[in-house]
């Protein structure tokens, strides 16, 4: 294997019922990915269970756990067992009444290399995350690992070019997005297509604008709403993009292990021909700190 090539795996899965069942499936999938040569594995958002944010219930806070905690211990052992870097997504209990949507990165020796708390928190029908998650307070700081500097962001962060840019400016080698996104099954097919295509286009834009590979791992399957609504059909379509927005690998709508080889030298080459960072007018961007320019 070339030092310039990074084999990666994205574990695209459905909910299997509870944390123990889901983690057991993850353990099997990561073992398979390791056998196929993966050195970096990305899991989907809130992979321990169902996407509980379809409703607001204080009982769902019982799912949260501290970091470090039971899941980080189990996942750290998994990373160590297979000698790879693993990116997970957990419901963090920081203190009583204080919770975050947190990505945790494990080094290949099983230690926690770092974590990222989701910064942008949605509040939309079926995605009532503001009830559960406090916005992150750790900024946009890449996490150093043995496979590179990982710019880890989470789901709703994917719609914000500022988040991707700040990770790039801080020296990220890759952008990674654990994700849980889908459509209302009752929507017309044209609307479903528009939503999915916009999601993919946003990631391609982050790759192009920053000259970086992008990895996005989404969940699959239909999850009914506790409110009696039609629920969410998670559309999968996890993907790995190169630094010009090109598809290196793309999944469909079923459970799968999406494997890809990333050329770590392409960002250098692409940024030489498209020097967007050089030409940024940082002297003229002050208004970006305003909510809106009236």
Structure description:
It is a single chain. The protein has helices at residues 19-35, 70-82, 161-169, 189-210, 266-273; strands spanning 5-12, 40-43, 85-95, 98-106, 112-117, 123-124, 127-128, 143-145, 148-152, 174-178, 182-183, 214-217, 220-223, 232-235, 239-241, 247-250, 256-263. By secondary structure, the chain is of the alpha+beta class. The protein has one domain: Carbon-nitrogen hydrolase (Nitrilase/N-carbamoyl-D-aminoacid amidohydrolase). The strands form 4 sheets. The protein has a 6-stranded mixed beta sheet with strand order 5-4-3-2-1-17. Strands 8-9-10-12-15-16 form a 6-stranded mixed beta sheet, with helices on one face. Strands 11-14-13 form a 3-stranded antiparallel beta sheet, covered by helices on one side. Helix 1 (19-35) runs parallel beside helix 2 (70-82) and helix 3 runs parallel beside helix 4 (189-210). The longest helix has 22 residues, at 189-210. It starts with a strand and ends in a 21-residue tail after the last helix.
């Amino acid at each position: 294997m070339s030092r310039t090539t990074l084999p990666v795996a994205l574990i695209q899965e459905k909910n299997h019922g509870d944390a123990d069942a889901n983690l057991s499936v993850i353990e099997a999938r990561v073992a398979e990915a390791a056998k196929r040569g993966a050195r970096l594995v990305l899991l989907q958002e809130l992979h321990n269970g169902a996407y509980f944010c379809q409703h607001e219930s204080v009982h769902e806070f019982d799912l949260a756990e501290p970091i470090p905690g039971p899941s980080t211990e189990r996942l750290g052992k998994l990373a160590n067992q297979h000698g790879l870097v693993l990116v997970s997504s957990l419901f963090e209990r920081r203190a009583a009444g204080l919770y975050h949507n947190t990505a945790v990165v494990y080094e290949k020796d099983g230690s926690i290399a770092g974590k990222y708390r989701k910064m942008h928190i949605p509040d939309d029908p079926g995605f009532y995350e503001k009830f559960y998650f406090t916005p992150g307070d750790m900024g946009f700081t890449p996490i150093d690992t043995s496979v590179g500097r990982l710019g880890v962001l989470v789901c709703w962060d994917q719609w914000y070019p500022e988040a991707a840019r700040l990770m790039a400016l801080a020296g990220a080698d890759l952008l990674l997005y654990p994700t849980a996104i889908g459509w209302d099954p009752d929507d017309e097919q044209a609307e479903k297509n528009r939503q999915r295509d916009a999601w993919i286009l946003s990631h391609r834009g982050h790759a192009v604008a920053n000259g970086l590979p992008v990895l996005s791992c989404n969940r699959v399957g239909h999850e009914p709403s506790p409110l009696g609504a039609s629920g969410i059909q998670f559309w999968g379509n996890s993907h790995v993009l190169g630094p010009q927005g090109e598809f290196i690998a793309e999944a469909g709508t079923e459970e799968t292990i999406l494997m890809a080889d990333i050329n770590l030298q392409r960002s250098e080459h692409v940024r030489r021909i498209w020097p967007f960072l050089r030409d940024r007018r940082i002297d003229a961007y002050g208004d970006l700190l305003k909510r809106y320019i009236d």
